[in-house]
Amino acid sequence: MDLKALGYFVAVVETGSFTAAAERCYVAQPSISHAVSKLESELQLTLLMREKRGVTATPEGIEFYREAKGLLSHAQTVRTHFINKVESPLLTVAVSQSVAFAYLNELLKALKGINPALQVKLIQQSESVDIRLTVDRLVLSEDLFIPLWQDHYCLIIPLQSPLAYKECLAVADLNGQAFIERTYCDRNSEWAEFLKLHQIDVTVAAAVDNEEWALSLVEAGVGVSVVPLHQAQDYSNRFVVRELGDIDGLESIRRSVGVAIPYRNLSNRQVLDVKDKIAEFCQSF
To answer: 137-163, pLDDT tens digit by residue?
Structure first.
């Protein structure tokens, strides 16, 4: 059974005439008539009732139309699947643990905007990775870094905590607080040294290995935490946010989040396209 003939038959049923079906399929009308007649002969069924004002499907024709539509749809799915496997470019992306999922989502949208057919594979840090979503402190000397967002380090406080209602906070207010430790943070050692220097004793209520866990545990009231946040986002319904520079005894700390591309990968046309276009797509983030 010829898929092209099935397509012609479906077109006749949907348009109601051989002439309209021929126009839709960009073929001569005799080709449509011959294909449908051949189907009827092969099936030994009358699929269409020919009348002066057009054609209508017989009960058998209606049933066959449904089956034909299903077969054509499945054939297109199979075709698309294997064409995409051959033609869709693949980009491997490594994501640093300290980068929030929201930034990954925005990057994936940007990559799809560059090329809708692009297949993105997320992997762990590897020498063979095409690009990395990372922070400025983790950029290597052999990397080209494209900064996309800027985070401010903030103290985030559960809404139900007494600290949430203090207008002015000082370093001493952290003493005795339950603390959510971000084990993956590249500033962990600096923070530990700072607390020790100022004789601030905190209780580690939980140790987490990604940003979303830290935010969720603070929101649940488990403890406070120091995390980098994008200032454009509103967290007021989740927890209280105080930028470190607004706390007496602390200084503002910021970081850039962006895409690092090993210079050796710029010989790859696909990676070069990402490098040339990604900043443009991310300007509105």
So the answer is: 999 999 999 998 999 999 999 999 999
Do residues 84 and 76 make contact, with C-beta atoms less than 8 angstroms apart?
A: no
* Closest listed residue to residue 48, CA positions, set 65, 71, 28: 65
3-state secondary structure of 100: coil
User: Of all helices (H) and strands (E), which one includes residue 230?
Assistant: strand 225-230
The amino acid at residue 49 is M
Contact 211, 100 (CB under 8 A): yes
Do residues 74 and 81 touch, judged by C-beta distance below 8 A? no
What are residue 92's phi and psi, to 5 degrees?
A: -95, 130
Q: Please, which pLDDT band fits residue 86 given cuts at 50, 70 and 90?
A: low
Helix 29-43 and helix 18-25, axial crossing angle in degrees, nearest 10: 110
Helix (H) or strand (E) holding 57: strand 54-57
Residue 226's CB is within 10 A of a number of other CB atoms, namely 23
Q: Please name which of 241, 251, 101, 255 lies closest in space to residue 186, comparing C-alpha atoms.
A: 255
User: Whats the size of the chain, residue-wise?
Assistant: 285
3-class DSSP assignment, residue 258: strand
Q: What is the mean pLDDT of residues 266-284?
A: 75
* CA 283 to each of CA 103, 136, 273: distance values in angstroms, whole numbers, following the listed order: 13, 18, 16
Q: What angle do CA 212, 183, 256 make, to 5 degrees?
A: 65
- Report the predicted TM-score, pTM, of the whole model to 2 decimal places: 0.64
Distance, in Å, from the CA atom of 223 to the CA atom of 220, rounded to the nearest integer, reads 8
